[in-house]
Design goal:
The protein is an alpha+beta fold. It contains 20 helices and 22 strands. The strands form five sheets. It has a seven-stranded mixed β-sheet, sandwiched between helices. Strands 4, 5, 6, 7, 8 and 9 form a six-stranded antiparallel β-sheet that branches. A hairpin with a 5-residue loop joins strand 8 and strand 9. The C terminus is likely disordered. It is an enzyme of class 3 (hydrolase). It comes from Adhaeribacter terreus. InterPro entries: ClpP/crotonase-like_dom_sf, PDZ, PDZ_sf, Peptidase_S41A, Tail-specific_protease, Tail_Prtase_C, TSP_N. GO terms for molecular function: serine-type endopeptidase activity.
Length: 698
Amino acid sequence: MLFACYTSHSGSGEKKMDLAGQGKNEILLRVLMQGLNSAHFKPEKLDDNFSKKVYGLYLKRLDFNKKFLLQTDIDKLQKYQTKIDEHVQNGSYEFLDAATRIFNVRSKESQELYKEILAKPFNFEVEESTELDPEKLKFPKDKTEQREAWRKYLKYQTLVQMAELVEMQEKAQAKKDNKTPAKTNTELEADARKKVLKTYDDMYRRISQFDRNDSVSAYINAIANAYDPHTEYFPPKDKASFDIAMTGRLEGIGATLSERDGYIKVAEIVPGSASYRQGELKAGDVILKVAQGNEEPVSVEGMRLDNAVQLVRGKKGTEVRLTVKKPDASVKVISIIRDIVIIEETYAQSALINADKPVGYIKLPGFYADFDNKGGRNSADDVRKEIEKLKKQNIQGLILDLRNNGGGSLQDAVTMAGLFFERGPVVQVETSGSAPTILEDRDAQVQFDGPLVIMVNQFSASASEILAAAMQDYKRGVIVGSAATFGKGTVQQVFNLDNVVPSEFNAIKPLGSLKLTTQKFYRVNGGATQLRGVAPDILLPDMYTYLEQGEKDQDYPLPWDEIKPAGYKQWNNQPNIAKLKANSASRVSGNANFKMVTEIAQRMKQQSDNTNRSLKLTTFMAENKKSKEDAKRYEEVEKGNKPLTIAALKVDTDKIGADTVKQNINAKFIKGLSKDIYLSEATNIIKDQWTGAKAVVK
């Protein structure tokens, strides 16, 4: 048992804690701290450094835009910066209470401030700007400076709304049958201010609904996240809403959301879901607004996660429009028709690439396994079956696509690795204080021993990284990707806190759950996948190359380290990585599509870094136009690519038969692959290996 037991009485033997005479929140904090410090992979030392981490995280999330608190308020709270370690050990919320009192006062003051500012028109002809990156902002030194910060930020929000209205009006006026008279800029500015006013009225109504439990949950999560980004506290109310697989009985848009620093962020796209098929919403996007069909959008900035999810969820066939901010700071409206998750798309799919000689392709969206059904499907068996089908087509190489694969079943990753080499270790798993456990493939059979390419990107994580790392360490295949993989090399477990508090405290239950990082992955070569991920053998240009994505960009991730290598034997017929890398670089440098991708990536980096935005309408509209032109340029990259000759396997099309829905899904799958410039290059890398040792397919 990882958690120590608790009791209201003193006792001997197993470590116990006296909880008698304390309130629910005090007991919750002490139970949580005991769990963190006894079961976390790398427990924090409760000292001034820990205290500073919690202090910084909580204030960052309490006032993420630095619009409420003054520097004088921060000065008053400064005394708690090195005291929180003592507070949490005693079950005290002294810092939280002090910060909440100050925030409540400032919140009421700002409520009058935004109404006053939005009551008057803005002048969008003035040359001025506002900083949008909270990390670059400072807390206002006084109320005069605070008012100016609010004025500029509200002016920016109004400018965003006005730019949308101007664009909508221009489109409407372009229609020949349009008879609606055009509004003046003065009228459009007034309409835009009304929209912003409604947004902030709604936001302050939400703030007024926050209660003590919400504050305690936010504070506890600041404590938990000081250990690592994946350690979290889930309040008792509807835990499923905090896991947020927004499919709600497999209906919805199919995205996993998280709340960080006051923003609602997309953490993961569910394979086979409406978002997955629509293709524009990506992990890392920040959701700013949510609209139902043609209704007015509702801002979700500062909104509680469970409330934001309720806006996004909905029945099959209904439309939701998400206004999202991309990693490059561009803003885009994405329309998604809610639907059920199409289960077939969550499973491994294969296709045949005709490239002089046949090349097999397998897309694996996730490492799935039916843990509740012994006879259920699992990804390792499915990939093995797809390989067998492809071998019947006499494939002379295989591409396994793990792009955007966030992981899943560890055992399936181990078994899948064994499909490509003889028996041996695949991954080492370490629990704090224990010797690493080596997970290995014990099956000597090799399902495919020809040229192998593993495709990854920065969203390939966890089990994907384990498989890619094993193939790289064994020198069994070539890892091809647009960046190092995500770098999540840790394992989490969820504990119900009610189970560790004795029955005499049933009156204060439920206490909620704690998701805790308990283990760490290591490659067979001894290096961790944590933080660094898996660096591709062959690196290809990507739009997000220069943007911050991955574990290393989170607050307080666990560090990279290494342990003793496991004993393993590398593949005999190793690919010539140096030669393959040189050949690929030569092709990519002369490829107009990849050149354009590099140019767009550099432009996106500039946009991401340029967080100081103009408040002049003409300048703002020009910048928006440029961003949209860049987005269209990437669409042209796909259109300009010479299509791959690729087809579904006959055995699969025969199985689909006359089912038109499945026919359309399969046709879309094949069409998308044929335009994929990365898959084209992966195929070329397979072909390069034919000039060396001949592939032998068993």
